[in-house]
DNA sequence: CAAAACGCGGACTTATAATATCCGCGTATG
DNA sequence: CATACGCGGATATTATAAGTCCGCGTTTTG
């Protein structure tokens, strides 16, 4: 239905919380703060680490932080890391199937890029060009310009209090305590 | 996997055969000529008629022809007619879900267009701009410049002979003759 | 006028991808 | 050594795309 789906949306929103935040933030914190599916987000972030956009710290108090300054991370880089460089169009080389060629399409018919594929490639290029011109810093700025000052303090407090409140969260695993 | 799928590809290739062809061509002819699924193509073309890009003639010897000169039909118009104005991205308004808002996001958080949605909209606009700049005539020209002259005659002959050869085609319906 | 060849559109099936969850492992912290 | 992480494989659940089938009305043609 759309080229870029919920994975990308979740990830982009999550990354905005990491801008200018030197402390690692866990995927669970990011998910619960934004009320998005935790297990799903946790599955997306390793892709960003492999792409070199995030740095992960393991173990207790671990989490993610940006690998580079936010103004050096383009939306295009994020999208490609999450969705895997999706193309606008998959050419199936219909031009060579014409029955007049009888299974043996001549060279003139299949050489170069298919005209239909060509216009799609140009459109894709225009799209990627636009995505490459916006950075996480740009996005974060547009959000912060709207928010009132007290909000950032509240957000910081929420992160600080996480280690305690997680204990009472709805998402709880039962190691070997589930027996009546 | 891609924003535009096989429907669009089949349709665009089919339309190229209608450029400068005043005689109506049936969907079955278009499908068999290009070796693409006939029932599927037959399902796409009515969309183009409703969009005003094609004119259909019913009954025996019926078929489709372009409603306008090929240089007035953009690839964008075709794609929108077939796929229904797909967007690059579906914003789910994640920004309003932040738990700090406690179910009641303040106005500053949800007013205007979401920054992430915004960059996607700009990219989509750039893509559509590019698709709108290419017409069916442009595509047809790039194909014809490659093909040798005799090819067009062969194609014309194939269409002319269709009414007879269809009789022996593999795709044959059995009205009430299927009894052992 | 009846058969044939069309377009039309709904119902249906299948294939594939997107979304989401679960579980066990290794690792760092305190 | 218990806890809270990241990691990754396996699995379930939808949703969408791709493809098929069938019955109806329309138009030509013999």
In the sheet with the most strands of chain A, the strands line up as: 1-2
| DSSP helix fraction of chain A | 40-55%
* Overall number of strands of chain A: 3
SS field, number of helical segments of chain A = 9
Quaternary structure type = homodimer
Indicate the structural class of chain A: mainly alpha
Write down the overall geometry of chain A. Answer: elongated
Largest sheet of chain A: 2 strands, antiparallel
The appropriate CATH architecture of the domain at 6-87 and 135-168 in chain A is Orthogonal Bundle
Strand content of chain A: 5-15%
The CATH superfamily title of the domain at 6-87 and 135-168 in chain A: Winged helix-like DNA-binding domain superfamily/Winged helix DNA-binding domain
- Report the mean per-residue pLDDT of chain A as an integer: 92
Cα end-to-end separation of chain A: 46 Å
CATH topology call of the domain at 6-87 and 135-168 in chain A: Arc Repressor Mutant, subunit A
């Amino acid at each position: 239905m759309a080229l870029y789906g919920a994975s990308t949306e979740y990830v982009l929103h999550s990354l905005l919380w990491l801008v200018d935040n030197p402390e690692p933030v866990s995927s669970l914190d990011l998910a619960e703060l934004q009320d998005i599916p935790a297990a799903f987000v946790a599955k997306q972030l390793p892709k960003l680490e492999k792409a070199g956009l995030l740095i992960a710290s393991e173990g207790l108090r671990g989490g993610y932080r940006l690998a580079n300054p936010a103004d050096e991370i383009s939306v295009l880089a994020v999208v490609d890391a999450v969705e895997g460089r999706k193309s606008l169009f998959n050419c199936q080389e219909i031009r060579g199937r014409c029955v007049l060629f009888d299974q043996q399409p001549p060279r003139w018919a299949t050489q170069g890029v298919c005209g239909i594929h060509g216009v799609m490639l140009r459109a894709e290029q225009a799209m990627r060009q636009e995505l490459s011109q916006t950075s996480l810093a740009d996005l974060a700025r547009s959000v912060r310009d709207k928010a009132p000052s007290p909000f950032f303090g509240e957000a910081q407090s929420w992160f600080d209090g996480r280690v305690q409140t997680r204990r009472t969260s709805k998402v709880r695993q039962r190691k070997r305590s589930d027996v009546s």
